[in-house]
Amino acid sequence: MSLASPIDSKLEGVVWKRTLKEPVLSYPTLAGEESTDIVVVGAGFCGLNAALAAAKTGQKVILLEAGIVGSGASGRNGGYNVPQFPGPITPGVVEAVIGKKKGQALSELVLGGADAVFRQIERYQINCSAVQHGWVQPAHSEASLAKVKKVFDAWKAWGADVTWLSQGDLSARLGAAGYIAGWFNPTGGTVNPYGLTIGLGRAATQEGVRIFEKSPVDGIEEGPGGVTVKAGPSRVLAKRVIVATNAYTGDFLPDVQRATVPVYLYHAATHPLRAELRASILPGGECFTDLRKSGGFGRLDDAGRLISGGAVFAFGDKQAYGIAHAKNRMRQLFPQLTDADCEFEDYWEGYCAVTESYLPQVQRLGKEVFAVVGFSTRGVNLAQNLGRVVGEFAAGTRSLDEVPVAVIEQRRDVPLWALKVRAARLVFPLYQAKDRLGLS
Q1: I need a labelling partner for 236 at 20 to 30 A (CA). Which of 7, 55, 83, 154 fits?
Q2: What is the pLDDT of residues 238-252, one digit of tens each?
Q3: Which GO terms describe its molecular function (predicted)?
């Protein structure tokens, strides 16, 4: 899977595909010429929700996907539905970056977003192993404790239903070692993300969206008659286009590709844990993500597999490196695990798009052509809810000013993009060192 062509429709090694409960639907490949009101490019969380929201207003929508529905980051992430910005970002920081009005609106979207995802799953009866037992952000060091407490205080002042947890509280909730304190939001939880994308595709078609798979877009041209979206010899003429390809854009649209740094991540899933371990590890079904740079998070799937991961270190045998790190981190978090408990059934990789601010943004690529990028590890919540908002904008029921993120009116590449892409693939040992020294 190269950066130029990152599509992996087979989802090799992804546990979510192997444990899928939602029936897979197949969609045709675009052929010939079509016309519609709105074209959405990319059938992940953002694109599916944008298409769904626009179609619900009565707009005709065509959704084009280069691979298959959910084959990008949406179908291969960890499945954490988190009601918080990436890491230690607070609502105040967001307001400082994008302004008070949009910052407050985005904070509201994030705070209520995890619950909104679960309610939509219920509305469309999507069978994606959804568990809403809450999310915890624990502090693993004195440095992280100050950041975690600041985030908690900010949400508490916002009026959020959040709870501060002592070291003893954390131990009881997580069954994990080494945490000092943290906080809990009951609206968070977990999903099978690939199952969720499959279900969203079904929901979108129910609302009238026409989905075309294996139809990679290789050109977008705007003219007096509208916007022409090209996919090989086939064409779609539309009034407005939303590009939602994120880290899976490839080379055809450098304006979008170079607006974020694609961070290459891996996940690994154990065999289902023994009954006595399941009683002591995340016994209440919560999930957690800490502030470790080299990955500190935990969840169980519905069969009791423990899932971990981190950034890929693309030097030497990267898979062996990732598996060794995942085993060590699991043993560090949960000393009750043996080496045999940490044997993995599944290992997979994929891209995550990170902006310089760690916040998503909308890019204006033309008068009626827009892209949404940069969910920075918060795609299950942010990509879906922002996708819905962008879909409402595409349909004309919401103004661009009402989309609660920065709108970039001209091309703005990440400085030193090529160097940062390379560095992101080699920096993992540095992350590990910072964590060992208590600097994260």
Answers
A1: 7
A2: 999 999 999 999 888
A3: oxidoreductase activity
pLDDT digits (tens, 9 = 90+) for 102-148: 999 999 999 999 999 999 999 999 999 999 999 999 999 999 999 99
Q: Could you give the angle at the alpha carbon of 300 between the alpha carbons of 299 and 302, nearest 5°?
A: 140
CB atoms within 10 A of CB 157: 11
Q: What is the pLDDT of residue 427?
A: 81
For residue 394, the one-letter residue type is A
56 vs 69: CA distance, rounded Å: 20
pTM above threshold 0.90 = yes
Contact between residue 289 and residue 267 where contact means Cβ atoms under 8 Å apart: no
Quote the strand ranges of 224-293, DSSP E.
Answer: 226-231, 234-238, 240-243, 261-272, 287-289
pLDDT at residue number 250:
85
Residue-level length of the chain: 440
**Is the backbone of residue 246 left (phi > 0), alpha (psi -120 to 50) or beta?**
left
Distances from the Cα of 77 to the Cα of 71, 190, 348, angstroms? 10, 11, 9
What is the SS3 assignment for 242?
A: strand
Q: Using one digit for the tens of pLDDT, what is the confidence trace for 23-78?
A: 999 999 999 999 999 999 999 999 999 999 999 999 999 999 999 999 999 999 99
Tell me the pLDDT tens digit for each residue of 377-389: 999 999 999 999 9
Supply 289's token pair: 């993500």
Report the distance separating Cα 236 and Cα 229, nearest Å: 5
**Using CA of residue 128, residue 133, residue 139, residue 140, what is the dihedral sign?**
negative
CA distance 53 to 329: 40
Structure tokens at 313: 């270190």
Q: DSSP for 63-83, please give it.
A: EE-SSSTT-SHHHHS--EE-S
- CB of 185 within 8 A of CB of 162? yes
Q: How many CA atoms lie within 13 A of 309 on its CB side?
A: 28
Say yes or no: domain 15-422 is CATH 3.50.50.60.
yes
